[in-house]
Amino acid sequence: MTACTRRRFLTVASSALVLAPLTAAANNAKKWTTIQVTDMHCSACAKKIAGKLYKVSGVLEVRADVKKDLAYVVPQKQKTPAPRALWEAVEAAGFKIVQMTGPTGTFKKKP
Q: pTM for the whole thing?
């Protein structure tokens, strides 16, 4: 292998390593569930919602955007949390859902 060939190989290999996680994240983003709630005023509200959502089977991660009243649920690999279980978890935290959108559809009422 010449020096030029080695450099090309390393460039292609390193590019693949950088792009692989980004591609995986993009593919997983399609599986996220976005939950719009009423009255998420602060990080304590977000933590209360997240605490209940983490108890739902298949949930890997919960993120929140307090300013937009949104919670984002990231599923475990090869799993889809049940929409009804997510809805009821938010209700158990004391919040109402305006809309929930995920891989199984968009809901404005409890599924």
A: 0.74
